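So, could you explain the following?
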Amino acid sequence: MSRPRAILAAGALAVATPAAAHHGVAAVGVAGPEGPGAALETTSSLPLPQDVLFTLARTEYVPFERFGFAEPNNKTYSSFNMVALGYGLRPWLSVYVFQPYNVKAQDGIGTNAAAGDTSVMASLAFKWDEGLRLVPEKESLDELTDWHFSAWASCTVPVASTTARDDLGAYLAPDMQTGFGGPSPVVGVSALKQLTSDLTWLADASAQYFFPHTYPFTRYQFGAEARVDTASVYRVYGAGRFRLDLSGELNGLLLRRDRERSDAGAMEPLPASGGTILYAGAGARVFYGPVSVAVGVRRAAWKDLNEQAAQQGSEGLERFRAALTVGYSTRL
C-alpha cells in the first residue's frame, strides 16, 4: 500500500510549557488516521509532509500547591497558551513558528498576562532503511514502521517584556515576567518506532540554555534545562477519517540553579532553585480528517528539588498540569 504521507497526515503538534519561569521547548509531531501515533509532550520524529501547512492552538492550566511559608504571596496558577504555524519545506525539513501568551497569578501581587518570546524552529527528519537516510517524499504504511529519527534546533526571539510591574507598582521578579530578555537556544533529537499497527513508541532528549539578562533591579540568568521524554501511544479505534488514540508518557526534567549578580558583581548560584523532576501523564487524541483535538493531564511522580521547602510555585510543585490542543493541517 503506497500513498503519500500528505494524504495520510492530519497534524498533531504538542507544545510543552513548563511553569515556574515561562521556560518552554516545542514538542512536535504529525500523525494521521493510519500509521504511527503522536504523543502530547514527547516529540515525534515524523516531519510535516512537503507543502503542508499546520496550525495549532494550545492552552495549559497549572495550579500550584500553596505553602504557609509563602503566605501571603503564594503563586496561585499559570496559564500557558500558544499558537503555532508549521510548514513542510521538504519531505525531510519542517519549520515552525510559536507564539506564546502566558498568564501568571500571585497572591498579593496580581496577574501578569502578556505575550511571551516568539520561538522559531527547524527539524530534520531521518529514517533507517539499510542505513540512515533523509525521509523520502513518499512512504507506504509498511515503510512507516521503519525506525524514524529527527534532530532539531530552535531559539526564542526576545520580543516580550521583562519590565512588567505588579499591582503595587513594583517590578515583577524575573520568573513572573513573560520574556527572557535574550535568545534562548534549544537543540534536541528524537526517535520513533511503530511497534504494531496500533502501538507506537516515541522518545526525545533536548537541552536549553538561557543567557543572563539585566532586569530593572537585578541581573539574572535562568538555569539551563535538560529533558528526556518517552511515550507510548495506542490507537484504540480507527475507521475512515476518524481515529482515537490513548497515550501514556514520562517526562524527565533537569533544572540547573538560577544565577543572580551578587554585590561583588559575580553571577552566583541561587538557593531554592533547580532540581530534578519526573512527570507522569496520560492523554487522549481524536482525529477527524485534518483536524485533531487532544487533552492530557500530568503531574510530578517524583522530584528532588534543591531546598524544596522554599520553592513554592516552581516546576515539580504543581497540583497538576492540564492541557488542551487543537490542530489543523492543509496542503498548499
